[in-house]
Amino acid sequence: MRRLLKPLWIALAAAFLLEAWLWEAMKRVPWQRLRAGAKDLIAPLPPQGTLAVFAIPAVVLLPLKVTVVWLVLKGAWVSAMAVLAFAKLFGLALSAFAFDICRDKLLQLPAFRRTYERVVAARQWAKDLLDPMIAPVRQQLRERLRRIERRATGRRFRFIVRLRSKMRREPSSKVA
């Protein structure tokens, strides 16, 4: 039975890590002025009020989810999948933004802190499960990219390399 469940656990771990990677990528979007203004707005709120602010992305996405159901019932599968993908990415960006501005106050709530610690532990579990499988592939990809970077001389490729290095850099103001 364990051998049958292992692919399921691997797929679950991969999906979880993909979601975590997208979450981190969405947090890096440079919205410093908007972030600072939003933090100023929630500063007077108690932690419970901040929890309501953190729930706003779910409410904002509700019409998109209803639209997906409507499109499925209509038989427009491709459109439904496109709206669902957009809703997923948009919701992830909104949630990452909301969590980033609300994190300090949310972690004051004991139940939220426990949930946060469980999610962090689950992320580590997924990373530990998939790292032995992914590490050799990641190393091969890095080697191939280095070889391509050495050979390429085009302006467009240099631009892509610069853009990639900028995306990998940490944001200037990091909240612990």
Describe, in plain words, how this protein is organized in 3D:
The radius of gyration is 20 Å and the shape is globular. The protein has seven helices and no strands. Helix 1 packs across helix 5, helix 1 packs across helix 6 and helix 4 runs antiparallel to helix 5. It has one domain. It is 85% helix and 0% strand. It is mainly alpha-helical.
Largest sheet: none
Q: Could you tell me the number of beta strands?
A: 0
User: SSE order, as H and E?
Assistant: HHHHHHH
Instruction: Provide the residue-averaged pLDDT.
Output: 81
- The total tally of domains equals 1
Give the helix proportion (percent range). Answer: over 70%
Q: What percentage of the residues does DSSP assign to strands (E)?
A: under 5%
| Uncertain regions spanning at least 5 consecutive residues | none
Distance between the termini: 41 Å
Task: Assign the structural class, choosing from mainly alpha, mainly beta, alpha/beta, alpha+beta, or little secondary structure.
Answer: mainly alpha
Determine Rg (CA atoms, Å). Answer: 20 Å
Count of helical segments? 7
- Write down the overall geometry: globular
Core attributes:
single chain; mainly alpha; 7 helices
Topology of this protein?
Layout (H helix, E strand, L loop, with lengths): L1 H26 L4 H11 L4 H8 L1 H19 L2 H30 L3 H42 L3 H14 L8
Short summary:
The protein has 176 residues and is mostly helical. It has helices at residues 2-27, 32-42, 47-54, 56-74, 77-106, 110-151, 155-168.
